[in-house]
Amino acid sequence: MALTEVKVRKAKPAEKPVKLTDGNGMHLLIHPTGSKYWRLQYRFGGKQRMLALGVYPDVSLSEARRRRDEARQLIANNVDPGEQRKADKIEEKGLLTFETVARNWHSSNRTWSESHRTTVLNSLITHLFPVIGKRNICELKTRDLLVPLKKAEATGHLELAARLQQRITAIMRYAVHNALIEQNPAYDLAGAVITAKSNHRPALPLEQLPALLKRIDAYKGKGITQIAVQLTLLTFIRSSELRFARWSEVNFKNSLWTIPAERQELKGVRFSGRGSKMKTPHLVPLSNRAKILLERLHIISGDKDLMFIGFSRDDKPISENTVNKALRTMGYDTRTEVCGHGFRTMACSALIESGLWSRDAVERQMSHQERNSVRAAYIHKAEHLEERKLMLQWWADYLDANKEEHITPFEFAQSKK
Fold first, then answer.
1. Buried b (16+ CB within 10 A) or exposed e, 331-347
2. Of the ranges 160-174, 188-202, 278-292, 355-369, which one carries the lowest mean pLDDT score?
3. How far apart are CA 223 and CA 230, in angstroms?
């Protein structure tokens, strides 16, 4: 029998939830605490669903029936009332457009550096919002999300297309996690955009080390540039790690250079807040030769914050092209023969081929990310610092041994036993 207002008001709780049926799928659920909830059971898309209609007495019997009838009318029109309610709530909050959801996703990421946050937001503003920013997030299909990716691909910006795909997928995943949409249509974007070929940075075979070392010694450029080239070879750190270095990072007494996860940004210098690429402090043991070079550099810029001050202004760093320009002056093609980043490949090859050093120590010194997440959980605190100190000195000694003629890393290692 249908419920009455008196029956609803006088209904008492029990040890277990009690359900009083009214009709057309609606019932009153009475919890043991005495709370009374209106509920509507219905089927949609072949599945049993439940819709909350309100709490008694705030919502009377007559009001609950009105809400039930509205919901059943939506079902008759092939609209899921539960999903319609979510959409209505989203629209009330102004969260329905892709742009608004994307901005909320962007704001929710707390682990990014400020420079990376700016880069990500600029890519959204430039490449995504003009195309799909005003679209209802609930209506976006895979084909809609593909439009900005294909636009980037058509202009040859394959890396950009790949990054946009990752960001769209993350934004739509955020929408799913926040119950804004049921499924992520961006998952089907996989394989839809051409993958950019990896361009490995050119590096010299170790057999050509003697010629390289002779050209570096004969280089007549500015003192800071020569030191930058030699230190890049000796420490094989990345370009931004070197360019934006500060004297406060160097401990001469302990022969250690600590590259922080982030640095204080320099006004008007893009990316100057970059520290270690892996976003964790990177320890660089200093060989005897590296310390001598830093002492020479300290005479030039030791009274400044920056180590590698620019040639025209001492509050700006050397340019990102300084080391490669010097290599070109020495006669190398930095696109096909060797570039500053290629020194990393050469050092890694020599250290591995020597047979002296553990893989973990080499990977730590290269500042590579451990891709095996299980293994990373065990080794992330292991610095292997004592081994790395010996390793960096060995690399400096190996370079000295190659000044006149080439000797293989293995032969050099055996000669030291």
1. ebebeebbbbbbbbbbb
2. 188-202
3. 11
Asked if 277 is an active-site residue, the reply is yes
Query: How many alpha carbons lie under 13 Å from residue 41 in its C-beta half-sphere?
Result: 10
Cα distance between residue 73 and residue 33, in whole Å:
33
User: pLDDT value at position 87?
Assistant: 67
Query: Residue 9 is which amino acid?
Result: R
Token digits for 373? 């997440």
The whole-angstrom distance between residue 327's C-alpha and the CA centroid of its chain comes to 31
Whether 5-79 and 206-415 share one fold: the answer is no
Q: Does 246 qualify as catalytic in the annotation? A: no
Given the residues 27, 67, 274, 344, the one annotated as active site: 344
Specify the CATH class of 206-415 in words: mainly alpha
The domains of the chain are located at 5-79, 98-189, 206-415
Instruction: Tell me which CATH code domain 5-79 carries.
Output: 3.30.160.390
DSSP state, 243?
Answer: H
pLDDT score recorded for residue 371: 41
To the question of domain 98-189 being in CATH 1.20.1180.10, the answer is no
Q: Identify the CA nearest to 170 among candidates 123, 126, 134.
A: 123
Terminal C-alpha separation, the chain? 96
Q: Which position among 66, 150, 378, 380 bears the catalytic label?
A: 378
The mean pLDDT value of the chain amounts to 88
Q: Give the active site residue among 9, 143, 368, 403.
A: 368
Q: Is 238 a catalytic residue?
A: yes
Q: Could you tell me the pLDDT band of residue 94, with boundaries at 50, 70 and 90? A: low
* 148 φ, ψ (degrees, to nearest 5): -65, -30
| Options 341, 364, 384, 388, the catalytic residue | 341
CA distance 170 to 258: 33
- Whether 67 sits among the annotated catalytic residues: the reply is no
